[in-house]
Amino acid sequence: MEQFTVKQIDDLNEEELTQMVEESKREGFRFLDRLIRDYKNGSNAFDQRGESLWGVFDQDGQCVAIGGLNRDPYTNETSIGRLRRFYVSCTFRRMGLGTLLLRRIIHEANLHFHVLVLHTDTEQGDQFYTSFGFVQETRYPHSTHCLRLKSLWT
Asked: Of 71, 88, 78, 91, which Cα lies nearest the Cα of 122?
């Protein structure tokens, strides 16, 4: 696992994601396209309080997994974070990289939010997130799962 590094992405425009985006589209996922489009037009640059974008990079510096943390845009409550645009390249699945990335994002969420929410529509996603303690919950708009955080902020 030491051949992979989790690091914050400060400028998405500097990352080469073409292969990962094309792969995700072949799988029927369009959210990486949306990630890039929203970042470029400024509608979601992961630059608000508590927000960040993270990647897992291989030894060659290629991003093989990505995920973001936003203030939940579907509520006015500033204590709710949302996991966004979480994707692990097919070749690198079942290697623990999703776990590595999600742990880092949850750690970051703990610094800023009381609750972390997400939306998934796949059984694999449901199983993955519930293994981290997320529960199926429709209480939060446009969400399928939530995690109560041991928030470190006051």
From this structure: 88
Amino acid code (one letter) for 100: L
> Which residues constitute the domain of residue 25?
5-148
Concatenate the DSSP letters of all residues of 59-115 into one string: TTS-EEEEEEEEE-TT-S-TTEEEEEEEEE-GGGTTTTHHHHHHHHHHHHHHTT-SE
Cα separation of 115 and 143, whole Å? Answer: 12
CATH number at residue 62: 3.40.630.30
Q: Is 77 inside any structural domain?
A: yes
Considering the entire predicted model, what is its pTM?
0.92
**Cβ atoms of 115 and 81 closer than 8 Å:** yes
Q: What is the pLDDT of residues 102-118, one digit of tens each?
A: 999 999 999 999 999 99
